[in-house]
Amino acid sequence: MADRARPAAVSPRVEVDARAAFLSPAEAVGLETEWRDLAAASLERNPFYSPWMLIPALRLLPSESVEIACVFDGESGGRRLLALAPVVPVKAYGRLPLRHLQTWMHPHCFFAAPLIRRGAEQAALRALFAAIESHASRPAFLRLRHLGADGPVASAARDAAMKTGRAAHASGAYQRALLEGGYGAEDYIACVIRKKKRKELNRLKNRLDDEGGAEFRALRQRSELDAWCTDFLGLEHAGWKGREKTSLAASPAEARFFREALAGAFDAGALEFYRLDKAGAPIAMIVNFIEGGEGYSFKIAYDEAHARFSPGVMVELEMLRALEGYEALKFVDSCARKDHSMINSLWAERRNIAALNVSAPGIAGRGLLSGLKTLEEAAAYLRALREARRKEAGDDL
């Protein structure tokens, strides 16, 4: 299935004099103004690499050995950014001792398309690929993680690789739920959710109404943001993530990152924060980021004491109704795992996600990547065969 988030047209190519450099996180922060301009003009929007989110992540989350790969426009005096991505050297590829460089993803990053200036993508990518080969870690190839498999960044990277004598192969592909814009909420719900399930949700809502009902609210005032963050952190920590010590509140640094990222998103006009309250207290909350009509669902939490009402499903449906009127909404990526039963049952569309491995130029570089591709395809075939046999054995019991 094609990546439905891909724009209909590719931007015109412009010949640009580009140069690449690897900066420390502290050096990159000094380019925040230029970074914001790049994020707004990117071929593919990525809130996880926007400065309001990546800067606090670099400061507060584990980021050892991370560098910021930057490409500058040489004709602008070296300040205009054409591309930016955090990268980290890795010593092995699976079980193979192959050094490579890959885009960095912290634990709360769910999309890793580099920021690439629209209209200068070929020059930016050529400069980036050339710089990788001179990196101090001597990487065998570059791995661009978690891209829209058929999206504009992946397409431009494949094109740039081909034109510079490199190979580019997809790896680790999977699908996750996607909500396309331009829908009518009630018609969408009626189409996607089975009639029996809709009747059950209406029954649960009636039961909730009998206990005083619930109020759906959207954050609109900056002055309320800190209290909403406190409520979300507490709600998440009170559930299974708190018991397993994986909640944001279980780590002071991660809780601070959450607050700073959401504050930056609000100030950038990118935050969509919703809650479902019962008796003034939240029973479900959800955080989305939307920039330029391209959205990503970030975090959701619900009160397990009210699990009998399916508050997570209820807040998702209310959010769907709220986003119906969002101007120029293109899509919202669920950022969920491929087998997430709840969101898969609510959102009909799917987005293809994959990494893209880009070789060094020349026969040796291309041959190495071709060999890796063959090994990965064989491993995937064996996994599928084992899974089919496991299911077949289960059917025989």
Note the main attributes of this structure.
13 helices; 13-stranded mixed beta sheet; 13 strands; single chain; 397 residues; 40% helix; alpha+beta; 24% strand
Notes on the structure:
With 397 residues, this protein is of the alpha+beta class. It contains 13 helices and 13 strands. It has helices at residues 25-29, 32-40, 51-60, 121-132, 152-163, 185-192, 195-210, 225-237, 240-243, 252-267, 311-323, 341-346, 363-396, and strands spanning 18-23, 67-73, 81-90, 100-103, 115-116, 141-148, 168-180, 215-218, 271-278, 281-291, 294-302, 331-333, 349-359. Strands 1, 2, 3, 4, 5, 6, 7, 8, 9, 10, 11, 12 and 13 form a 13-stranded mixed β-sheet that branches.
- Topology as a string of helices (H) and strands (E): EHHHEEEEHEHEHHEHHHEEEHEHEH
Mean pLDDT: 93
Give the helix tally.
Answer: 13
Contiguous uncertain segments of 5+ residues: 5-14
The dominant shape is globular
Structural class: alpha+beta
Largest sheet: 13 strands, mixed
Q: Between the first and last Cα atoms, what is the distance in angstroms?
A: 35 Å
**Rg from Cα:** 22 Å
Regarding quaternary structure, what we see is single chain
Helix content range of the residues, please? 25-40%
Number of extended strands: 13
Tell me the β content. Answer: 15-25%
